[in-house]
Design brief:
The chain is α+β, with helices and mostly antiparallel strands. It has one domain: Double Stranded RNA Binding Domain (2-Layer Sandwich), CATH 3.30.160. The chain has one helix and three strands; from the N terminus they run βββα. It has a three-stranded antiparallel beta sheet with strand order 1-2-3, covered by helices on one side. The protein is globular, with a radius of gyration of 14 Å. The N and C termini lie far apart (48 Å).
């Protein structure tokens, strides 16, 4: 087994009343949760399911290090 550190993005969703979470390394891999902890648990499951499906189809597993996280400060 190889440990892979997939980056995820969390965004508060006021309409939903929780968080939407996306794994940008895996197209279409997203989830949600009412708390940060729930969203993180849900995206872990979604990532595992996506990877399992990719492996079963013989697809290459994405490199999680291809996603860089940065910050841009804008003053207005």
């Amino acid at each position: 087994m190889t440990a892979r550190d997939f980056k995820v993005f969390l965004e508060r969703d006021e309409e939903y009343g929780g968080y939407v979470i996306v794994c940008p390394s895996i197209p279409g891999c997203y989830s949600q949760g009412h708390t940060v902890e729930e969203a993180m648990a849900n995206i872990r499951e979604a990532i595992e399911l996506c990877l399992e499906a990719m492996e079963s189809r013989g697809e290459e597993i994405p490199n999680p290090n291809s996603v860089l996280i940065g910050s841009v400060v804008v003053t207005r």
